[in-house]
Amino acid sequence: MIIRTKAPRQLALDEPIRHESGHKRPKSRRDFLAAGLTTGPAVVGGTTLLSLFANPRKAFAALSDDLDQLRGACGIATQGAGRIPFIAFDLAGGANLNGSEALIGGQGGALDFLSTAGYAKLGLPGDQLPQSPNAASPTNNFINTSFGLPWHSDGAMLRGMLEKASPATQALTNGAVIAARSENDTANNPHNPLYGLVKAGADGSLLTLIGSRTSDSGGNSMAPASMIDLGARPTKVDRASDVTGLVDTGQLGQLFPDSADTIGVLEAIARISGGAGSSASGKLGAVNMGTRDAAIKEAVRCGYIKSADLVDRFGTPATLNPDLDPLIVDQAGSPGTGIFTAAEYANDAEFRKAAAVMKMVVNGFAGAGTIAMGGYDYHGQGRATGEVRNLRAGRCIGACLEYARRVGVPLMVYVFSDGSLNANGTMDTTVDGRGKFMWASDNQSTAASIMLVFNPGRRATLLDGAGGYPAARHQQIGYFTADGSVATTSHPGANAVNLLVEVVILNYLALHGLQGQLATFLGTTGLPMGQIDQWTAFSPICNGVITSPV
User: Fold this and answer.
1) What span, in angstroms and rounded, lies between the C-alpha atoms of 164 and 527?
2) Cα three-residue angle 230-232-235, rounded to 5 degrees
């Protein structure tokens, strides 16, 4: 029976959630993030060189523009490690990600429809089931495949993604959904895959990992303990100042109006310093005191080269600063060029957070990043509160995909939350409630995660027949029972979050054609290697490393 009643007061987009019952008082940072009570830097420095100049003219006399060769001699990466950039969206609190959002179904895939009661549990009334007649749709139903993955056409995340991702981006994006339970309202879900990606080869030219929170995972949920390497702990990045603060080119970088002059001086000193690979003997190169001396000279020389490299790549503020990137935000005098308007960028910290992370990851400055967004513990707040928060998450997801297209590189996006929730039969008839059922309580049995892959050369192709599964089953890893619950035996990660993470890393490696090396990269795996084709969504989009768009 459908009950129509007045919805609870809709919370403002950034208003904290205060549950009156059924929840403990927030104590940890994770609790505050889930309730929206908080919104979720290392420094790479250049050498200060003024005191080291004995003969500036001699330095300039040795000037060469051969910085690329010098970079190679000192092992400096100018881009990422050749792996596909990866951004994780960690929605704290137990968000709705499926049924009312990405479609999920039975053993036949997303369009193997659940029962009416199953969809009601996932928030959909009978007149908004995926297969229900919908005269407003060209397909006369509530199914949208603009991003490859079947989605409920009125899904709030979908609407946000469609706002920020152009039709060209949509046509080059595909996705898959993973049916998997995770615990509600706990920091103990080992949900975050970033350390596993490092084991799989992800890296950046400035930093290995970044995250919008100062936690070991960079997000809300923790990472699997077996994968954690604190030497790769994510650097906190959630605003432009975090990004620009990563690089300090030293006082020398401030003395010359043209960064080419700074680079020349640094490179020249490197040559004067001598050492292996240097074409100048120089002061330090004139004396040979054995291997220790050679090592000291090489360290000094490479220190100057690394400083020159920093000035060359990051001496211009717009290189790192998302606020100044016209592809991200409209600049003065050029409205309409950015993904975000100047007004919405200025007024929404979550947009600025997403921009800072995507600027670093998509450009290869960091190998992977987590964007933690708070306030997704929205059950008991009607339907409208969750809709507007999912809408904003969708805008941020769409922005990341759109930025990848504008830069011209592939991107994998992973969306997850700690637990999930279920609806009751009470309809929210407010404008933002959209006539859907209100979210009633936490429910881990309805949880799922989403993978999206953008590829600038062509839309990623689903496997078809691999492991005995048709394409529809590769687009849906695992499945739901008809009553709207995860079938916990449908794949190894369906009831084990640590194995869910391994499924995600498996799919990341598969995009590079390296899925068979999962156990080698991780050191061990709980996934039966003889069955991994069953849990792999896409054919490779590159051969091992990214060298150019494919």
Assistant:
1) 36
2) 100
Break the chain into its structural domains and give their ranges.
Answer: 44-76+247-315, 81-245+320-535
Could you tell me which of 259, 313, 283 has the C-alpha nearest to residue 71? Answer: 313
What is the rounded CA–CA span in Å between residue 402 and residue 117? 36
Determine the Cα–Cα distance for residues 98 and 104; give it in Å rounded to an integer: 6
Structure tokens at 150: 């079947």
Residue 239 and residue 329: Cα distance in Å, rounded? 14
Instruction: Supply the DSSP string of 210-229, one letter for each residue.
Output: EESSSSSSSSSSB--GGG--
End-to-end CA distance of the chain: 52
Alpha carbon of 373 to those of 186, 199, 220, 369, 518: distances in Å?
15, 25, 8, 13, 30
Among 103, 147, 106, smallest CA distance to 129 is for 103
pTM of the model: 0.81
Tens digits of per-residue pLDDT, 429-448?
999 999 999 999 999 999 99
Residue 331 — φ and ψ, nearest 5°? -100, 160
Question: Can you read off the two tokens belonging to residue 28?
Answer: 């940890």
* Nearest Cα to Cα of residue 216 among 183, 238, 239, 194: 194
Q: Distance between CA atoms of 352 and 340, rounded to whole angstroms?
A: 9
Burial of 532 (C-beta count, 10 Å sphere; 0-12/13-18/19+): buried
- pLDDT computed for residue 61 by the predictor: 40
How many CA atoms, within 13 angstroms, populate the side-chain half-sphere of residue 491? 35
- Total count of residues recorded for the chain: 550
Q: Report percent pLDDT > 70 for the chain.
A: 72
